[in-house]
Design goal:
10 helices, globular, 37% helix, alpha/beta, 17% strand, binds 5-S-methyl-1-O-phosphono-5-thio-D-ribulose, 343 residues, Rossmann fold, 4-stranded mixed β-sheet, Four Helix Bundle (Hemerythrin (Met), subunit A)
Length: 343
């Protein structure tokens, strides 16, 4: 079952990551023992998804400590290596937050760092279960009394977290309550997290789904084929503006037009009260080749250039609900993270 999927795991020697670049064709793992390999794995999306990046970042500090011992680094070299992990991708606040959470334990040594990183991992799985329950309760109270058609964008499942998933955690909970008719999984251009990863997880869990092109999503919603959209988040600003995979804002706009719920499911660790609003969220821009090629073959004229932002920002007024492990904030009604309950 996909909810047993462990995207990030500490083996005692290093990190074991599911290689998300080769799914759904192959289920392979990458063993990470050094900082260069970890930074590359984060940047090429071997490990991805905000909460999974947070856990990888926290264990990454342990990797840096082990490498420092092995290679006789001084503290400055070790700390610079930790900084490289922290900065490997800019948008998901969880990565830096995961590193920062274990940093106070560095003077106590490797075991203390590993214990704190493991605590983060365990909290994330527990939190996702709670997100699933809160999200399902909230959606069921606001949708027709029949199995639902839920749309999701990108992958916010077990692969993107320490386990179970955020948006897909809500879907799993609805499925367990026999309240899923179908999940529309947006394919998620250009790296196909939806068609490769979300579809793989739904397939493993026996949850009915349809993959659609990202460009189809707004019309599917406006045609009345969707009861609610549920997505994850990479960073939620204090005012409720939410960064998630590029294409998310089109889904939110269509939900607002259709009058159906647009739900963001994310742990509190994705809320960044130091970021006032969406305009302050750093948006990762990835290599043009991801857009200019398809399946390894050039798909644009020679000389074509590309704009490749990996994320977009959905304004708070379009977010019907922010579901965290502590409950639900109705953001579009004015309950921002800044003013709402915190941990
Ligand atoms: O570029 P990715 O695959 O790391 O982007 C992931 C997303 O946008 C997810 O929706 C988000 O991180 C939430 S994962 C629970």
């Amino acid at each position: 079952m996909a909810h047993d999927v462990q995207a990030v795991e500490w083996t005692g020697q290093g990190l074991r990551l599911i290689d998300q670049t080769v799914l759904p064709h192959r289920l392979e793992h990458l063993d990470v023992r050094d900082v260069d390999t970890l930074v590359a794995a984060i940047q090429n999306l071997t490990v991805r998804g905000a909460p999974a990046l947070g856990v990888a970042g926290a264990f990454g500090v342990a990797i840096a400590i082990r490498q420092a011992e092995r290679e006789d680094w001084d503290d400055a070299t070790r700390d610079a290596a930790i900084e490289r992990i922290r900065d490997a991708r800019p948008t998901a606040v969880n990565l830096a937050a995961g590193v920062d959470r274990v940093l106070p334990h560095v003077p106590k040594g490797l075991d203390a760092v590993v214990a704190e990183a493991q605590a983060l991992l365990d909290e994330d799985v527990r939190g996702n279960r709670a997100i699933g329950r809160h999200g399902a309760d909230w959606i069921l109270a606001r949708t027709p009394d029949r199995p639902l058609r839920i749309l999701t964008h990108c992958n916010a499942g077990a692969l993107a977290t320490a386990g179970w998933g955020t948006a897909l955690g809500v879907v799993r909970e609805l499925h367990a309550r026999a309240r899923i008719e179908v999940v529309y999984a947006d394919e998620t251009r250009p790296l196909l997290q939806g068609s490769r990863l979300t579809a793989w997880e739904l397939e493993q869990s026996g949850i009915p789904y349809l993959i659609q092109a990202d460009g189809a999503a707004p019309a599917t919603i406006l045609r009345g084929l969707v009861d609610a959209a549920v997505v994850g988040a990479d960073r939620i600003a204090a005012n409720g503006d939410t960064a998630n995979k590029v294409g998310t804002v089109s889904v939110a706009l269509a939900c607002a037009e259709a009058g159906i719920p647009f739900v963001v499911a994310a742990p509190w660790s994705t809320v960044d009260l130091n970021t006032a609003s969406g305009g302050d969220i750093p948006i990762e821009e990835r290599a043009p080749e991801e857009i200019l090629s398809w399946n390894g073959t050039r798909a644009a004229p020679d000389g074509a250039r590309a704009f490749n932002p990996a994320f977009d920002v959905t304004p708070a007024k379009l977010v019907s609900a922010l579901v965290t492990e502590t409950g639900v904030l109705e953001v579009s009604s004015g309950a921002t993270p800044q003013h709402g309950a915190s941990r």
